[in-house]
Structure formats: structure tokens, C-alpha cells
Amino acid sequence: MLDILRIAIALSCLIYASYHDIKTRLIPSWIWWIMGLSALFLFSLDAYKEGKEFLLFSVPIAVVMIEALVERDDLRNVEKTWPFFLLYLSAIAVLLWGYGNYREKQIFLGALSATGISVFFFLLYSLNIIHGAADAKAMVMLSIMFYRYPFSMAGNGLEGEISVLFPFSLTVLFLASLIVALMPVYFLAINLMKGDVSFPEMLLGYRMKVAEAKKKKVWPMVRIVDGKLKRVLFPTKYMEIDWDAIENSGMDEVWVTPKIPFIVPITLGFILALIIGNPLTYFIT
User: Which of 132, 201, 236, 262 has an alpha carbon within 20 to 30 A of 126's alpha carbon?
Assistant: First the structure.
């Protein structure tokens, strides 16, 4: 029943977040608070059922949730950051205590897995591999909500120590990334049907009127540099777009690539993971 509740809460939050990501690219932070606090509460219930002492494993879960959701403008401000260092030390102390005494308990492995993979997602975000803050928050919330594998329609999942190395949230990220990686097939199909052929642009996006593209959430695959057109196949979120310069260059149409709301692939990856389970099990069983 708790698995069903976890899935219902996570799926509701992800669908609502996807709607906002598609419409505005801005996701209310309260969505992640609901998901995070629910995950913390459900983890604490599981820990209490194992024994009162295991409630301590809620500490690292709470710490990564707070780190993901509490905004801090200036990390160099000691007055604002020192409480976080105390939280980090407490989380590390609890995990070391757990490793020394309960390393084979599933509840400890779950806490270790959720904490470790959350730190990994923080690292991916700081390296700009995960681009959006909301995307990183979604992955952290999934990590603590599903500190162990939920049931899947395929009836498979990972348990024990290997679940720490390949937790459920990493499965979701893998499937979400796979969905994005298959988008060139989609672009190729629609461009061939329209008769728009230009390699490699036809694998990365589609052609659009400049006047229309200015109003859409897309990146142009060209820039005007020193009065000349320059091809840009892989735009970044930091790239400045001068639509007026493109329009004034005489271009009526331009190849564009959409700004993909990654929460949508995460949501689809989550649903797919519930259906097929962990793909790794098909190779190790």
C-alpha cells in the first residue's frame, strides 16, 4: 500500500510539474516540497516498522531534501551556511554508524542509496549535465521517495548492495535520457514527411518561420556573427538569441531546435520504469 501511495504522489507531482514546464518553463517550488516531505514521512514509517533506532536514518534523507529545496544566494556567507555544514556532518555520522552496525539492513542500504545518488545528481547539476534546477530537484525527490525499488508491472527490481549502485531514480534518469536520445528519429520522420532536408539540422530540429519562432520556446541553429550567418547545431541555455539580427539578415525561415522541458521525459521515464522495471535485470538474471 505504501508503494501505491508513493507512486500516486510522485506521479501526480511529476504530471503537474510537466504541465507547468511545458506552459511556462517555471515550476512552483511547493510541488517539490510536497513530494519531498511525503517521501521523508513514508521513509520514516518504514524505518519505524524496522525499529525505533532506525528512525536515525531519516536524518540523511532530510538533509539531502533540505539541500535540494532551500535556496541560498551566497554560499560564502558563513552565517547562512554553517547550519548546513552541521547537517552534513550529522548525515555523515548517521551513515557511518549505520555502516558499522547495520550495513546489511535494507533500510540502511536505502538511506545510503538515496543520499549517495542525490549527491550525484547535485554534482550533475553543478557540472551543467542536468541543466534545470527543477530537473535536479525532481531527481532528488524521486531518489528519496523510492529509496528502494517499488513494484513494477514486470515484477523486477534490484535489491541489496547492487540497488545502492543502481537505484530506481537512476533507472528513471537513464530511461528519460534514452527518450531524449531518440528524438532525432522523430525529427527525421517529420522533416522527411514535410520534405525539409538539410543535414544534420533535420536530425536536431525543424524549420520554422522566423516571426513565429520568436514567439516559441526554441533555439535557432544559426547566429549572426560580424554580419555573417554562423551555424549553431547545439545551442546552450546561456546563448544569447538575437532574433532581430536573424530577421534583418533576410532569412524568412530558420532551422530551430526546441527547448525540451526535461521534466516531461523524466515523467515518461518514471512511468516506463514502473512498467518494465530495471533494464539491468534483463542482463544479470
Answer: 201
Residue at 159 is within a domain: no
CA distance 9 to 129: 27
Whether 282 maps to a domain, the answer reads no
Handedness of CA 31, 34, 37, 38 (dihedral sign): negative
For residue 107, tell me if it sits in a domain. Answer: yes
Q: Is residue 95 part of a domain?
A: yes
pLDDT at 238: 62
Return the closest-CA partner of residue 59 out of 4, 101, 13, 96: 96
**The model's pTM:** 0.82
511547493: which residue's cell? 30
Tell me how far CA of residue 86 lies from CA of 8, 12, 71, 83, 160, in angstroms: 34, 33, 17, 5, 30
SS3 220: strand
Domain range holding 211?
Answer: 183-258
Residue 254 contacts residue 153 (beta carbons within 8 Å): no
In this structure, the answer to whether residues 128 and 74 fall within a common structural domain is yes
Q: Please tell me the chain's helix, strand, coil percentages from 3-state DSSP, rounded to the nearest 5.
A: 65, 5, 30
Which grid cell sits at 118?
542525490
Distance CA 254, CA 246 (A): 9
**Coil/strand/helix, residue 11:** helix
Question: In the numeric block, which cell numbers belong to residue 188?
Answer: 527525421
Do 114 and 229 sit in the same domain of this protein?
Answer: no
For residue 146, the model assigns a pLDDT of 92
* CA distance linking residue 123 with residue 262, whole number of Å: 17
pLDDT for the residue numbered 10: 95
Cβ-based neighbour number of residue 200 at 10 Å: 12
Identify the CA nearest to 228 among candidates 245, 252, 253, 210. 245
